[in-house]
Amino acid sequence: MENYLGAQRPLYEVKANLFKGLSHPLRVRILEVLAGDDEVGVTRLLADTGLEPSHLSQHLSVLRRHRLVASERRGSQVFYRLAYPQIADLLSVARTLLGEVLHDTARQLSATAELPLTPAADR
């Protein structure tokens, strides 16, 4: 697969680079906000994320570099949207997966409560 510089790279490296764009909780939050609408202005992103303008700008820059968001300037306003609708699907799958992992963890913790105590635990 070619990257934007034209060099050949294995698909797993390209995928890993995509996940680098997702590797910060606030970037995931930005994507979640964008997934809820066709496009969102910077003012709303600031309000919904609680970020300072400079920090939001840095995260949006990373998301643009990894081709996860697209932007459009209209007058003095900048609007952002998901670059691809599949990004919303990816966030949804991640949420479902995390729910299953947490459910399994809770089940395993519950099962440990039913284990007999060891002699060392009786002291």
From TrEMBL:
Entry-linked InterPro entries: ArsR-like_HTH, HTH_ArsR_DNA-bd_dom, Metal_resp_trans_reg, WH-like_DNA-bd_sf, WH_DNA-bd_sf
GO molecular function: DNA binding; DNA-binding transcription factor activity
SUPFAM superfamilies registered for this protein in UniProt: Winged helix' DNA-binding domain
Keyword vocabulary terms for this entry: DNA-binding, Transcription, Transcription regulation
Residues covered by the HTH arsR-type domain: 7-102
Official protein name in the record: Transcriptional regulator
Source species of the chain: Tessaracoccus aquimaris
